[in-house]
Amino acid sequence: MVFQRTNLFQSALWLVSALCSWLVSSASAIAGPLQISVVDGEGQAVEHAVVSVEPAAAVKLKPGDLRGPFVMSQRNIAFEPFVLVVPKGATVQFPNMDRVNHHVYSFSPTNPFQLPLYGRGITRSVTFGQAGTAALGCNIHDKMRAYIRVVDTPYYAKTDRSGVANLVTLPDGAATLRVWHPAMMAQGQEMSQSVTTNRSGNRVVVTIRLRPARAGDM
Ligand SMILES: [Cu+2]
């Protein structure tokens, strides 16, 4: 009899805790999609812009956010992709798909590193523990350029050829939207503005100023 009573008590306790967690999860509602269009001074779509959203209520990156894979390949004597965005703490793989050797480096204050000469089929990796931007180069091939943007939020995306980036799930409420582009004429090549996310979704158009393109820049 005593055993049964304990059982009943435990079931009641479980019900109460389930109810509590349901209440908590419905309080921090998930907002609808946020679509960000990035254009330049002439209204032209800007590709390769990284957009990231930092909710007003601070969000911590979870182990699942760092799962990846995050890959910066070397193929046809070029980095691929040109811009990679990863969450802080992510490990990026650098596979060499070329017949020639590469020596990948970044001298940026954010996560400086060097991967001494390595050849076809070999993958090296680097963990990016600091938010910011790493400009990549190769000691052998001067033309090889790419960027790794490290963000301190799980909510990020990159603009496509039509200058559009979509963030599908966001916490509801006020947030800071950051836009970064390697050629942006602004301190740290980034700008920020306030946005509000809500269930019905939102669209934001961001205009940025780009420095004039030089051969080999992009
Ligand atoms: Cu190289």
Q: Can you describe what's shown?
A:
It is a single chain. The protein is mainly beta and 218 residues long. It has 2 domains: 29-59 and 154-212, Immunoglobulin-like; 60-152, Immunoglobulin-like, CATH 2.60.40.420. The protein contains 1 helix and 19 strands. The strands form 6 sheets. Strands 7-13-12-9-10 form a 5-stranded mixed beta sheet, with no helix packed on it. The protein has a 4-stranded antiparallel beta sheet with strand order 14-3-17-18, with no helix packed on it. β9 (102-106) and β10 form a beta hairpin. The model is unreliable at 19-27 (pLDDT under 50). Copper (II) ion binds at residues 102, 138, 140-141, 144.
Brief summary:
With 218 residues, the chain is mainly beta.
CATH H level of the largest domain: which superfamily? Cupredoxins -  blue copper proteins
- In CATH, the architecture of the largest domain is Sandwich
Categorize the overall geometry: globular
Helix proportion: 10-25%
Low-confidence residue ranges: 19-27
Task: Report the CATH topology name of the largest domain.
Answer: Immunoglobulin-like
Main beta-sheet annotation: 5 strands, mixed
**Number of H- or I-type helical stretches:** 1
What is the average per-residue confidence, as pLDDT, rounded to a whole number? Answer: 87
Looking across the biggest beta sheet, what order are the strands in?
7-13-12-9-10
Instruction: Say how many strands there are.
Output: 19
Question: Which CATH class of the largest domain?
Answer: Mainly Beta
Q: Tell me the domain tally.
A: 2
Radius of gyration: 22 Å
- State the end-to-end distance: 76 Å
Q: Please provide the ordered H/E string of secondary-structure elements.
A: HEEEEEEEEEEEEEEEEEEE
Ligand species: copper (II) ion
Percent of sequence in beta strands: 35-45%
SS-derived structural category: mainly beta
